[in-house]
Design goal:
Elements: E1 7-16, E2 23-30, H1 35-46, E3 54-59, E4 65-69, E5 81-82, H2 88-91, E6 98-106, E7 112-124, E8 130-135, H3 145-156, H4 164-175, H5 189-203, H6 210-216, H7 218-227, E9 232-233, H8 242-251, H9 269-280, E10 284-287, E11 290-293, H10 295-300, H11 304-316, H12 321-336, H13 342-355, H14 368-383, H15 402-413
Parallel strand pairs: 4-5
Antiparallel strand pairs: 1-2, 1-7, 2-8, 3-4, 3-6, 6-7, 9-11, 10-11
C-alpha cells in the first residue's frame, strides 16, 4: 500500500506534430492536474512564452468530444469548456497506454499541434512536474509554424544564404541571445526541470507559517520594533544616528567583513533604502529629531500576518502607473524565472511603458535612463524583503523561497487577470 504522502501521477509523451527531427518531451505530473496546469507544463517544457491562445481538442477516454479553451469569459466556441475546470483524469486513463485522440494546439496563427500519448501510471512524492526524457530544442516563438521554423533553422545554419544575416538578426532579437547559443538539437533536461520545479511551486504553493512571515518581513519588522514605542533618534540632517545604523547592519546580518565599520546611512545602503521605503509605505514618519511609527505602523507592528498583506498591497498599488508596470514585470520575472538578459531589461521596461501609453510631460517617449531608474527603484523595494533563502542584502534573482513565492503570488493576485 502506498504511503499517504505520495501523489498519483500520469506520464505523458508530448510531441510537436510534423517536426523533423521530432521535438518531444515526456512529462510526469499529478493525475489530478487541470488542463490549465498541463498547458503551463507544456509551455515550460518546450520553452514557449505563453503569449498566444491555446486549446485542447478531441475525444476523451470515454469517446466524448471535448473542446477546452483557456478563456472563461464566454468568447470561445459554443460548447467549449474552461481549461481550469477540467482535470486530466476526465480525459486520460493512466492505465490505457497509447496515443490519445486529444491534441493540444498552441498559437492559432502558427498552429503548433502537440500530440499526447499516455505512457502510463506514475507516483510522485509531492505535487510536482518532472521531465524524464525528450529531444531537441523547443521551436522559436512566432517563427511561422513547423515549416517556418524549419526554414529559420536552415537559413541561420547556412552562412552563404542570401537571407542569413536577416534571419540571424531576427533570431537574436526574438530569443534575446547570440546566435552562437542557438542549437536546434540541444535538449537541456536539467534546465527544463528547474523551470518545472519553479512552476510546480507556483501552482501548488506550500503553506506559509508564522515563522515564514516573520522571516520574509524581517528587515521591516526590525525597524518597526526598534521604533516602538519611543521612536529612533535622528541626526540634525534627518538621518538615523550611527549607533542605530551599526545596530541594524549587525542585527540584520547585512555587514560583510570587507566593509569594515559602517555607521552612516550614506555608507549603509540597506538601512537607507528600508528606512525610505517604510516612510513611503506610511509605516514610519519623521518628527523633529525622531523616526516614529505612524498610526498604521502602530497597528501592524505586532501583527506580522496583517503587515504581510499591507506590504503586498503597497507593492501592488504603488500609486504611479509606471512603477506598477515595473513591479508587474519584476514579479513575473521572479515567479517564472524568465528574466531578460541584464542588458535588455531597461528596454523591455521602456517598451512596456510605451505600450501602456505612458509618455513624458512633454509628450515624448520615455527615455531609457528613466526606465533604468524605475527598474532600480522597484528592485530596491523588493530588497526590503527576504524573498530568497538568505538574510544577505542584495541577493535577489537567486532561488525564491517557498514563502517568497507565496508573497509574490499574493502581490500578483491583487492585479486580477
Amino acid at each position: 500500500m502506498q504511503p499517504s504522502t505520495t501523489v498519483a501521477a500520469i506520464e505523458l509523451r508530448i510531441s510537436i506534430s510534423e517536426t523533423e527531427p521530432l521535438i518531444w518531451r515526456q512529462l510526469v505530473l499529478p493525475e489530478s492536474s487541470t488542463v490549465a496546469e498541463l498547458h503551463e507544463a507544456i509551455q515550460c517544457a518546450f520553452g514557449w512564452k505563453n503569449s498566444h491562445l491555446y486549446a485542447l481538442a478531441g475525444h476523451n477516454k470515454s469517446g466524448k468530444k471535448r473542446l477546452i479553451f483557456a478563456l472563461d469569459d464566454g468568447d470561445g466556441p459554443a460548447g467549449a469548456e474552461v481549461a481550469a475546470n477540467v482535470r486530466l483524469l476526465e480525459l486520460f486513463d493512466p492505465a490505457a497506454v497509447g496515443l490519445s485522440d486529444l491534441e493540444y494546439e498552441y498559437d492559432f496563427g502558427d498552429s503548433w499541434t502537440h500530440e499526447i500519448e499516455v505512457v502510463g501510471q506514475a507516483v510522485l512524492q509531492k505535487p510536482a512536474i518532472t521531465c524524464v526524457a525528450g529531444a531537441m530544442r523547443g521551436p522559436v516563438e512566432d517563427s511561422g509554424g513547423v515549416q517556418g521554423y524549419a526554414n529559420v533553422v536552415r537559413v541561420v545554419g547556412t552562412p552563404g544564404h542570401p537571407e542569413h544575416r536577416e534571419a540571424v538578426e531576427w533570431l537574436e532579437f526574438v530569443t534575446q541571445e547570440g546566435i552562437s547559443k542557438f542549437d536546434p538539437g540541444a535538449f537541456d533536461m536539467a534546465a527544463i526541470n528547474r523551470q518545472l520545479e519553479l512552476l510546480a511551486r507556483r501552482l501548488w504553493p506550500a503553506e506559509t507559517t508564522e515563522a515564514d512571515i516573520e522571516f520574509v518581513l524581517g528587515p521591516i519588522l526590525w525597524f518597526l520594533n526598534e521604533a516602538n514605542p519611543d521612536g529612533l533618534p535622528l541626526t540634525t540632517a534627518g538621518y538615523l544616528k550611527p549607533v542605530v545604523v551599526k545596530r541594524a547592519m549587525a542585527d540584520l546580518e547585512w555587514t560583510e567583513p570587507w566593509q569594515g565599520s559602517v555607521s552612516t546611512e550614506s555608507h549603509a545602503a540597506p538601512v537607507r533604502v528600508v528606512r525610505e521605503r517604510l516612510q513611503e509605505w506610511k509605516l514610519l514618519r519623521k518628527s523633529k529629531d525622531k523616526l516614529l511609527l505612524t498610526p498604521a505602523g502602530r497597528k501592524l507592528v505586532n501583527k506580522p500576518a496583517m503587515l504581510w498583506h499591507y506590504i503586498a498591497d503597497r507593492l501592488a498599488s504603488p500609486g504611479h502607473p509606471g512603477v506598477q508596470i515595473g513591479t508587474q514585470l519584476k514579479v513575473h520575472w521572479e515567479l517564472t524565472g524568465s528574466y531578460p538578459p541584464m542588458g535588455l531589461r531597461d528596454e523591455v521596461i521602456q517598451l512596456a511603458l510605451h505600450e501602456h501609453g505612458l509618455r513624458t510631460v512633454a509628450g515624448a517617449d520615455i527615455p531609457l535612463d528613466w526606465a533604468r531608474g524605475l527598474r532600480i527603484d522597484v528592485h530596491q523595494s523588493f530588497l526590503c524583503l527576504r524573498l530568497w533563502n538568505t538574510k544577505k542584502w542584495g541577493t535577489d534573482e537567486n532561488e525564491l523561497s517557498p514563502a517568497g513565492i507565496n508573497f509574490l503570488l499574493d502581490v500578483q493576485s491583487r492585479w486580477g487577470d
